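Students often ask what a 'structure token' actually looks like in practice. Rather than answer in the abstract, let us consider M18 family aminopeptidase, a protein of 461 residues. Its sequence is given first.
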Amino acid sequence: MINWKNGHLKVDETTLSEIESFAKDYMQFMAVAKTERETVTQSIKEAREKGFRNLDELEGSWRPGEKVYFENRKKSVVFAVLGQKPATEGVNIVVAHVDAPRLDLKPRPLKEDEQIAILETHYYGGIKNFHWVSTPLALHGVVVKTDGTVVEIAVGDKDEDPVLVIPDILPHLGRKIQMSKTMDEAIPGESLDVVIGSVPLKDEEKEPVKKFILKLLNDTYGITEADFLSAELEVVPALKPREVGLDRALIGAYAQDDRVCGYTAFRALLDLAEVPEKTAVVILADKEEVGSMGNTGMRSAFIDKFLSKLIALTKPSFSPLDLYEAWNRTKVLSADVTAAVDPIWKSVHEMQNAARMHYGPVLTKYTGSRGKGGANDAHAEFLAQVREAFDKEGVIWQMAELGKVDEGGGGTVALFMADRGADVVDIGVALWGMHSLFEVSSKLDVYYAYKANQAFFKHLK
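Now compare that with the structural description of the same chain:
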């Protein structure tokens, strides 16, 4: 008989202490990893401190226990601990994405209107526009100058920093222009313009506020208006991770979809106590929120290149068939968040197959929408192996679907890994407020996602 219940009724004080310690580390990581670039940079920094080396710098042949990473354009990265068996025998992968819904600056973003300097944006991923108005915002990213100089910008998150904002209209004047419309129409994407300044440059008649902002940018960062043409600047919430609830059992933070799965996978790999039988791999990928397109997303060849490099350590001259066979022997956890039952909105869930806070990470046999459209559907044999691994290590976990059959749905990168021939199942931490500016997770679920990944690396053959 299935007897899932709230994990807080199962754990002892020692485990609770471990949960709190892990949550503290996770929140510190999330405070500095506000973009996919920052997440990749921070994870590589922490990995190198644990002895990981760039795969391209590796000399010699296969050495079990060797720790390597493979960076892809500063937006995605693969980490691995080489196992006792060569890569031709397949590897065990946990893959998560580290991009998140946000507002990207347009190529020519800066303009002045009514003596206010604003930045025009183009939203990235599935957002609710109304989440982004009248809330403190930060600006993160890079500007690349024509001489190759990379200028990093991060403003809005320190206590002493100014923040940006998208002002909303007051309710007194908003009845016709906004409040009589649907939520989808009330705040159009083109109105998500960010206020960046309001002081005019003296002795300038044309666009004096814009020119003052350009002067500030040049004085501070050495950039010009033309440099926006080769920039990747993201508007993100200027919010710190916080404990939620008087019992402090929950975590609120931006971009937990899907950096919570990325972090728990990454830490599981860093903390491996023994050399795994099969090589343990963690992929932190980009572009999932827009379909995994581009050469940093999971539809691209960078992961095939990585696996090929591993195969070449033991078989320098290998055929395409060797790569195919390696994929066919590979096991994958596609780690992405799902929806936890919110008592306010529980009507969208079929309660017997719904995920709950504090019940552990959620195994999901299939995602997709309605008739499993666009889904990977995990094989029963593989699910049984994963269940066994979790149970051997005492992992608290649950199994669920994403909402009622006809309610909607969603997808992950699982199908792209399955296309390569691997066995794949989805797993993730359940959230409230997914794709909002302040997503909420359970500390217990975050910790047991970490433990589930460790069990997977240890026991999957």
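One point worth highlighting: The chain has two domains: 7-100+254-459, 102-237. Ask yourself how you might have guessed this from the sequence alone, and why that guess would often be unreliable.
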